[in-house]
Amino acid sequence: MRLLLVEDDNHVAAALSAVLARHGFDVTHARSGEEALQALVPEGNGFGVVLLDLGLPDQDGYEVCGKIRKRTSTPVIMVTARSDVRSRIHGLNLGADDYVVKPYDTGELLARIHAVSRRTVHEDPQSGSETELLLGPVRIELPTRQVSVDGSVVQLTRKEFDLLALLAQRPGVVFRREQIISEVWRTSWEGTGRTLEVHVASLRAKLRMPALIETVRGVGYRLVAPTG
């Protein structure tokens, strides 16, 4: 897999590139946001994943993430020292698929890269005949992967859509955290649990319906269909 590493520290980039190469990745190193954006022309330029450090010399990493998402659907993993949920949600809102917080374990990073690089086009297990799900003001169109609330389209990342569509198939049914992680992230890696929490928080904020997804403490999540 080709991987674009966006990192301004040459020593960090060299060490990380060596590790990634040993695990079969073809790494291209971009030292700035502008280099990264140029490397992704045209249409992602064949990269399977972008590993984006937010501390860049020429542009804010969040700004670069937003520009990348406008140019390509290539999965983006943000690398940040900011561990607060608000910062992570901001990155997801801009189109990032995942994040790792410094300092991180190499095994964690590799697991996240493999998880986001897998294609997760959602398939409806209910015979495949249903093309949309209606939940009060929320409309989920499965073929186009479009979500709207009261007729207004809500921009979701791939993982956010997959998560919402999964829960919406069976409103009121509790999905275990392990089941969600397995079906949406295609992995059983335990560390993905924090990513799940951030994606749930991001969905609640984007849909402006915090009560739509209910946390079942110690078990998982369920979607509560609006009554109005």
From TrEMBL:
PROSITE patterns: OMPR_PHOB, RESPONSE_REGULATORY
InterPro entries noted in UniProt: CheY-like_superfamily, OmpR/PhoB-type_DNA-bd, Sig_transdc_resp-reg_receiver, WalR-like, WH-like_DNA-bd_sf
Keywords on record: DNA-binding, Phosphoprotein, Transcription, Transcription regulation
Entry-linked SMART domains: REC, Trans_reg_C
Domain OmpR/PhoB-type, residue spans: 130-225
Gene3D superfamilies in alphabetical order: 3.40.50.2300, 6.10.250.690, Winged helix-like DNA-binding domain superfamily/Winged helix DNA-binding domain
Modified residues (4-aspartylphosphate): D53
Response regulatory domain span: 2-117
DNA-binding region per UniProt: 130-225
Pfam families in the record: Response_reg, Trans_reg_C
Name of protein: Sensory transduction protein RegX3
